[in-house]
Amino acid sequence: MVHSQVQVNKAHKTKFSSKSSRKLHKTSHQDGGRIRKSDSSSVKGAKAARVQRGKMLREQKRAAVLKEKRASGGLNSAPRVIVLFPLSASVELNSLGQDVLKLLASDGSGIASSTVASSEYKLRATVLKAPHGDILTCMEMAKVADLMAFVASASSPWEENKSNFIDSFGSQCLSVLRTIGLPSTTVLIRDLPSDLKKKNEMKKMCASQIASEFPEDCKFYPADTRDELHKFMWLFKAQRLTVPHWRSQRPYVVAQKVGMVVDDESSGNCTLLLSGYLRARKLSVNQLVHVSGVGDFQFSKIEILKDPFPLNERKNQNTMELDVSHDEEVLKSLIPDPIKQEPLIVENTPDPLAGEQTWPTEEEMAEADKNQKQGKLKKRNLPRGTSEYQAAWIVDDTDEENSNDGESDDDGMVLDRGEDSNHERRYDQDFEDDGKSLNVRDFDSATQNDSEMMDDEDLTEEQIKEEIKKIKEAHAEDEEFPDEVETPIDVPARRRFAKYRGLKSFRTSTWDPNESLPQDYARIFAFDNVARTQKLVLKQALKMEEEDRDDCVPTGSYVRMHIKEVPLGAASKLSPLVNTTKPIIGFGLLQHESKMSVLHFSVKKYDGYEAPIKTKEELVFHVGFRQFIARPVFSTDNFSSDKHKMERFLHPGGFSLASIYGPISFPPLPLVVLKISEGSGAPAVAALGSLKSVEPNKIILKKIILTGYPQRVSKMKASVRYMFHNPEDVKWFKPVEVWSKCGRRGRVKEPVGTHGAMKCIFNGVVQQHDIVCMNLYKRAYPKWPERLYPQLL
């Protein structure tokens, strides 16, 4: 029986095929010689699952966008903040601000507040005018702005120069605002000609000259007539606003009314009342609040008031004033729970008995007696004047090393090696080999060097200083190391540089981060794992945002915050600032953000600031919504090492690391550093940067270089003078490695004479004009500020 042959084409072979699909081309006699087709139900099921999953993702994104749109422009959302910022002093903002408010107000007259509700646009907005020349007010307005409307004047743009539209203060503010983080931006062009052709040409010229200063999606609009403002407002209403990420992580209130209740004048504190719309996130009455420029505090109560600017009211209520307290209806009051309320902890209280030694046990005392008896049987070479108690702390290895040198009165110098002692043994071997090859003439030359060093001992102190000064002036051209310091003549170097030590390698040598910490480190807090703590804190804040809790105020509500124990002097300064339209910001703190720690910032000196910025100089740090005083330590930002070299000044042109004592903040956060002048002048922008980490164990080392000058050179040996001024200092610093500016490395062999000269052995031939150097390091710490907050200076 012959089967009928029917042509059957093989299916398309895909790149990723299963085992079953690979065998489909095989024929079987049982099936009549035909190739079976695969069951497409599984394929259809997988395709249906992919389609369903894509549909669910689209619906989730659509719901998220709709929720964000309702939160930013819905009936229950807070009014949008529009900041009018002049790019030059020739821009007139008062007329533009009045035109925008009249356009938004339904009746068009009687504007008594900067916040209006427009039933025509179905929009509520707060219009703020940034004053030209006041950098502090401009920064505070930019921190709360939903839309930055930069205003340019086209009155005199005939020259092809960008400075016609943006002056020096405008350029400075743009640099600062880019560091803080720009929200949605737009540019309004005023004073355009009435002729349509010239108007379009002028608009294109303005846009082409200043477009590079703004984001790519920034739009340019004419803003001279009411129709042009009407067009801009409709586009603004439909625009999806974007804000910096750090602003969306914390709830904040821009105060529209400020008051205070004095409970007890003798205490010097009062209860501060801030009224405004809650933005970004929910606010719990149990969390802490920070008032910008004043400090961190606790809530005594939060009241949810009736919205003073509802969209569904009549026209005559659109511009009602907020200073009528009897019309404020309290809808709900939230009282903090003493058990759940976060405590206000700023500094750690150190325990004075924490470092005390406990009483030893009997086993420890017996072992100590046994070790003491064994130590007495062993002969030890100790420094002169060492007591038995001090001798008990000297390690035997160090004693054996000192005994091998044959110097019973040698003082000890700490040297962190990080490598084995092969390097020193190699120098000893080189010295022995070199000693075998020396002839009689070399030996006489070395003896002559010693005698000449003895002749210099007859010099007086003034003559020595004068000779050192001449040598310094002779080598001033080759001065390339800013860390060089002079060894004092009247103070021993071992006392002057007692806190310094040598390092075998700056990159690989170890340095204990918990060794000899200052007393200020007992006042700060540290995390075992900063990244994990930040993740948990943000997760907890997101959980509070998603849950429906009784102790939280929903976003967009008009609230009155009762902040307790605010200093009376600082609260009295806040009330007049509301009338001058300077924003007063109160924002909720995340967990741990009130505690002090060591913060590290990546900073760069502002190009327009020419004055030097010295380490530990008092500066004002603006970190996010916060502003506080700090005295930073600047250092190099090393990626290949766990140690950072301290810089005495903040150098321009590159990024440095600034370490301070400050309240804990979780990155990312922008940084603006201001320098307050001693007079009544405005603060100057000194540096810009961002928060990098919170890490008290980061090691910052101050480096100094001691220099000496070869008097006589004999191949790889040299007699060096003027690095030290007495032989005891030479013995103290003997373990530290020396090097020369011509690239030689060596060690100190022994002192010569009584005026601090010393013999050194190098790994190569030393030149007569060379300079011998010794690196010493000590750990540097920031300085604790005398006052933490500027109190609105």
Structure explained in plain terms:
It is found in: Nucleus, Nucleolus. Residues 78-242 form the Bms1-type G domain. Residues 10-27, 373-382 have a biased composition (Basic residues). Residues 28-39, 414-444 have a biased composition (Basic and acidic residues). The chain is α+β, with helices and mostly antiparallel strands and 793 residues long. Helix content is 27%, strand content 25%. A six-stranded mixed sheet has the order 2-3-1-4-5-6, with helices on both faces. A six-stranded antiparallel beta barrel has the order 7-9-18-12-11-19. Strand 30 (738-740) and strand 31 (745-752) form a beta hairpin. Helix 4 (135-144) runs parallel beside helix 5. The termini are far apart.
Brief digest:
By secondary structure, the protein is of the alpha+beta class. It has 17 helices and 33 strands. The chain has a six-stranded mixed beta sheet, with helices on both faces.
Quantity of strands, as a count: 33
Read across the widest sheet, the strand sequence of neighbours is 2-3-1-4-5-6
Shape label: globular
Q: Beta-sheet strand percentage?
A: 25-35%
- Uncertain segments are 314-326, 395-455
Q: What is the count of helical runs?
A: 17
| Rg measurement, Å | 37 Å
**Oligomer classification:** single chain
Main sheet summary: 6 strands, mixed
Helix content: 25-40%
Average pLDDT = 81
State the distance separating the first and last CA atoms: 107 Å
What structural category arises from helix and sheet content? alpha+beta
InterPro entries: AARP2CN, Bms1/Tsr1, BMS1_TSR1_C, G_Bms1/Tsr1_dom
Biased composition (Acidic residues): 396-413
Pfam families: AARP2CN, RIBIOP_C
Keywords: Nucleus, Ribosome biogenesis
